[in-house]
Amino acid sequence: MNIYHPKLLDWTWKINIPRYFVILFDLFLAIISLSIAILLRFNFENIPDADKKNLPYNILIIILVRLTCELLFGIHKGMFRHSSSRDALRIFYASILGNISIFMINFFWLFAYSHFVFPTSVIIIDLLVYVFLMVSARIIVKTLYIEYKNPYKNKKYILIYGAGESGIITKRTLDKDAASHYKVIAFIDDDEKKQGKRIENIMVYPPEDIEAIVKDKNIDAIVISIQNLSFEKKQEIAEKALNMNIQILHVPPVSKWLNGQLNAYQIKAIHIEDLLERETINLNNPKVKEEITNKVILITGAAGSIGSELSRQCAHYAPEKLVFLDITETPLYELELEIKEKFPHLNFEIVIGDIKNEIRMRRVFEYFRPDIVFHAAAYKHVPVMEENPSEALLNNVMGTKIIADLCEKYSIEKMILISTDKAVNPTNVMGASKRIAEIYIQTKNKHSSTKYITTRFGNVLGSNGSVIVRFKKQIENGEPVTVTHPEITRFFMTIPEACQLVLEASTMGKGGEIFVFDMGKPIKILDLAKKMIRLSGLKENEDIKIKFTGLRPGEKLYEEILADAETNIPTHHPKILIGKVREYDNFEEIKIAIDELINAFYTQDNFLIVQQMKKLVPEFSSNNSVFEQLDKK
Fold first, then answer.
1. What is the pLDDT of residue 227?
2. What is the reported pLDDT for 279?
3. Which of 217, 230, 223 has the alpha carbon at shortest distance from 181?
4. Is residue 17 part of a domain?
5. DSSP alpha helix (H) spans, 448-490
6. Residue 4, pLDDT score
7. Which of 96, 211, 385, 493 supports an S-S bond with 430, CB 3.0-4.6 Å?
8. Which residue stretches of the chain have pLDDT < 50?
């Protein structure tokens, strides 16, 4: 007979057993316990007549005492199938109190009738047997319930990487959660002292045995449960798991456990961002603190990916005032709610405004008088800007020029431009527009008291419109993952790290520098897509297809951090370099050329606009774009 047959047991677990039934059942166990205690006391032989005469009194006293203690401790209120260690403790305390009461009744009986109503040894044996029966009954019911709700045929077999305290807690969490579909088969641990031993009846194996265990025991997933695991080790474990086509889960840091306790639903699949992480961000930098504290800070594009993280990090350093400027209403409102919750004492202002509107920007500078401006507002999507050069010109060039000119007019201490690696040897309108913005502020720096600083980096993980976000949506919808080219590569950096480096570069800047960040090694987008599919528990080209769509307008295969003719010099920070780029000495010539370029907007002639961009940026060579014909000319 199949005990898991739904028609047989479904109705059983849906019934909430009345409390009086629980009380009757526990009293029945109390009588059984007393009977076993008496039989054990007399070695299952003939019970003396005197004790036989006392047996009805024994049963009556036991029933009254156990009933009183059960009601007093609320034992009858607990549901068997959800019993926990707290229920076991209540049973233990109630049993101790009950048997102490029986001892006292025994002595009163002695004074009243000159003999004990219970043999003393029976009271002691009864305590042990009663606790055992009460706890065992609940464990049996709970185990049957767990097995019914989650039969082995539906379970996934898992390995837990890490047999320390976190690993043991992870196992117990999965074991006790009725909704969990995982069964722990083995532990993996680097500690040789633990290897070959059993923890809660689960064997601990060395890391080199992973492949054999996965194969022999049909392992479905591996759970990384080690706290403070290095990124290199996490990537190593993940690579092994991906190569074996098994799912990777991880346990969150203890600080994120709810009320200090781990819940099964917190053990989640690892994401690609977890495997591309870099070192932990330190928000206690004394130089940045000195730069930001008690200053009025203006952040343009504050609702964007970079702008919002800059806002959070600046908030840590207690500025006199933070001004969040953006043209998008809803994301800015969401940022306001977040800042109010996380930094209740922060003095900040939310400003809706367009950096292309000089009148509005002049009012913002005049009213707030910022000390430092972080200019993160920009159009950044390459294909979109390739089709709309006039808007790239207006926002990225004219908008930056307006902000830069106002910084000089209102004697702003520093302006930090957030640029992009696409400004290096640009092959698209967006990159060229950012390069022109760099040229303007770098040249202006030579003739202004304001320090103009540029920071340049590549793609950031999880930013709006990033390839990772697009891949996630495609995988979730079961659609083909679209990769433009099998050889395309990109640099990636986490948003918090990029913003931290921006803040640190701002403290180093004397004006005129283009700070270049160490982005690590470039990542092949095809490999990224494959990893994301596998991390979702799917197989590429079986569950999810990979489709090559061809390079988009303006897109190039390999991003660069420095142009061919450029070199770089190190700084005291290992991840921040200063790019030695082509400099322009005659600011008036640059200003006139850029003004002419901005005036070209009113012609709405895309070819004329791009042609003038190419004059300003000779290295701008269009790729996979209608504007390639301008290069041929």
1. 83
2. 58
3. 223
4. yes
5. 467-476
6. 44
7. 385
8. 1-9, 11, 13, 563-564
Residue 552 maps to a domain: no
- Last residue of one domain, picked from the residues 149, 164, 184: 149
Same domain, 143 and 158: no
Spell out a b/e string for 79-115, using b for 16 or more CB atoms within 10 Å of the CB, else e: ebbebeeebbebbeebbeebbebbeebbeebeeeeee
Pair 312, 335: CB distance under 8 Å = no
What pLDDT was estimated at residue 2? 43
| DSSP conformation letters of 304-320 | SHHHHHHHHHHHTT--S
Helix (H) or strand (E) holding 333, with range, is helix 329-342
What number of CA atoms fall less than 13 Å from residue 416's CA on the CB side?
A: 30
The answer to whether residue 23 is domain-embedded is: yes
User: Residue 355 sits in which domain range?
Assistant: 286-459+493-519+560-616
Cβ-contact 204, 189 below 8 angstroms: yes
193 shares a domain with 134: no
User: From CA 329, how far away is CA 35, in angstroms rounded?
Assistant: 76
Contact between 296 and 319 under an 8 Å Cβ cutoff? The reply is yes
pLDDT of 12: 52
Backbone angles phi, psi at 509, to 5 degrees: -60, 130
At 149 the pLDDT is 62
Q: Are residues 431 and 305 both part of a single domain? A: yes
Taking CB atoms within 8 Å and a gap of at least 24, the contacts of 434-438 are: 434/378, 434/396, 435/617, 435/620, 436/396, 436/397, 436/594, 436/597, 436/613, 436/616, 436/617, 437/396, 437/397, 437/400, 437/401, 438/514, 438/581
260: left (phi over 0), alpha (psi -120 to 50) or beta: left
CB atoms near residue 332 (< 10 Å):
20
The structure tokens listed for 88 are: 């076991």
Q: How high is the pLDDT of residue 632? A: 82
Judge contact between 186 and 213, C-beta under 8 A: yes
What is the per-residue pLDDT for 8? 46
Classify each residue of 38-50 as buried b or exposed e, where b means 16 or more C-beta atoms within 10 Å of its C-beta. Answer: beebeeeeeeeee
Parallel, antiparallel, or unpaired for β 372-375 and 523-524?
unpaired
CA distances in angstroms from 463 to 117, 366, 460, 496, 531, listed in the order given: 79, 32, 6, 11, 19
pLDDT for position 153: 53
The residue type at 379: Y
Question: Which class for 251: exposed (0-12), middle (13-18), buried (19 or more C-beta within 10 A)?
Answer: buried
- Please identify which residue in the block is written with the tokens 């606790």: 131
Pick the last residue of a domain from 133, 149, 165: 149
Q: Reduce the DSSP state of residue 161 to 3 states and report it.
A: strand
Which tokens belong to 204?
């601990």
CA-based angle 119:121:124, to the nearest 5?
Answer: 120
Residue 267 token pair: 């053990």
Q: Are 188 and 161 in contact (CB under 8 A)?
A: yes
CA pair distance 565, 563, nearest whole angstrom: 6
The strand pair at 372-375 and 414-420 is best described as parallel
Query: What is the token pair recorded at 199?
Result: 């923890």
Residue 570 included in any domain: yes
Which domain CATH number covers 333? 3.40.50.720
| Tally of structural domains, the chain | 3
Residues 445 and 581 in one domain: yes
